[in-house]
Amino acid sequence: MSRWGSLQKFVVSGAVCAVALALTTAPPAGADPDPAPGLTWAACGDGVDTSEVPTARCATVSVPVDWSDGANPQAAQAQLAVMRIPATGQKLGTIISNPGGPGVSAIDIMTRFGPKLAKTEIGRRFDLVAFDPRGVGLSTPEMRCETDAEVDEDRTDPQVDYSPAGVAHIEDVERERAQRCADRVGEPFLAGLSTENTARDMDAVRAALGEEQLNFFGYSYGTRLGTAYAEQFPDRVRAMMLDGVVDQFTDPLVGYVDQAAGFQQAFDAYAVDCASQPSCPLGTDPARAVDRFHQLVDPLVDKPARTADPRGLSHPDAITGVEEALYSSEDWPQLTDGLTALARGSDADDLLELADAYLERDEDGHYADGEDVFNGVHCADDVYPSDPAVWAENDRRVREVAPYSSFGEFTGYAPRPLCVFWPVRPASEPHPVTSPGPGKIVVVSTTGDPATPYQTGVDVAGQLGAPLITFVGNQHTVAFSGNRCIDAPLEAFFVDRVQPPADLHC
Fold first, then answer.
1. Of 449, 459, 481, 487, which one is the catalytic site residue?
2. Strands, DSSP E only, in 123-209?
3. Is 449 a catalytic residue?
């Protein structure tokens, strides 16, 4: 099952007072003075490409790994990397953004997204701030559970045998992965990865910036972070935009099925578009596209496809590559090229490149730690049932709503996922999101979003009593990507606190 998307297509109390005093870090060499308490800004290091945003500066904020032990000066700390692009005009405030994942570097995305946003009214009136959550990107300690070689090996295992023996094998693999995380990262750090803790971290960043209230852009998983923040600190929310909404406390099994249905919807839309071309590798009848797709990818279980890269294209990588392309219709041409290569028996590097992009593998074969963070956050957040029969029923439902991604027939058996074997248990239970008050949040939802289905945005907007902006399209997230029908009312909301028109469709 695909993780919730990451914005890759975008290029987008007294205790806190005490913590704010403890956030001061030693000024790095060449530091610039700044009026914000607790932070000293300096030129960003080699790991941050600021060539397109030369005014960007970086800093570090320390937060306790265990917030319940935050008053203890000897408590273990996590170091959060923070980047700021100053407002280009008369400053109104600061906007913190999170691009999703979980596990995506907000700083990395801001180096690409920020130059465009800086030219808008938002960039003129607000400092743009991104911070890498604990374990992510430039923040430390690193959340690294597997080596590059181990991830490469994982990608060769099809894990499609849902016989009792096949399921036992898959679960053994997941147990081993969970134990590696516990051994290499440590259970205290794993326990601190919850979204609830990240929301506390974000409030510490707000306090260190000297801001009384939070302005926030949340995309995909970032919407879960935003609603968690609003629940804990409702009086500190000034304005918040949630695009590509994740229901913060939904049952994870419901989330699996809903997301599977969303990707099937995106696959069907792609099949219709592809069928308009005589050379479509799925044929010219969209009704038969799923069958044709399985004819192309199912043989990879026994024999990976040839690629110029010596790894070849495994069945898991083929599915991952397809899902990467389904995040945005902009990637459909590359998906067509990849499937055409499978149909012709030629090198299938397009699909391998898409899978590498999804899994954040660079040209040197090194992986970012996003997938480890993704697993750690969801295992810390969500309650996963241990009953095998529950997961077998979930498999049946996923096969029903997403036949394109389902291999073979329903067997009545299914593997339980990694989080069932995770060494720490989540502290929260599912419950509805709560509003921080009227006029503080705007929700954006896309009708053809595969990763965070449109209806979730509708439902959460209703729970929050927030206005909903609907984008009619096939992609994951859309705000501030250049669509003025959406961007203009959002600018008015953040700058002037003007609510968007009711039931706005773009």
1. 449
2. 126-131
3. yes
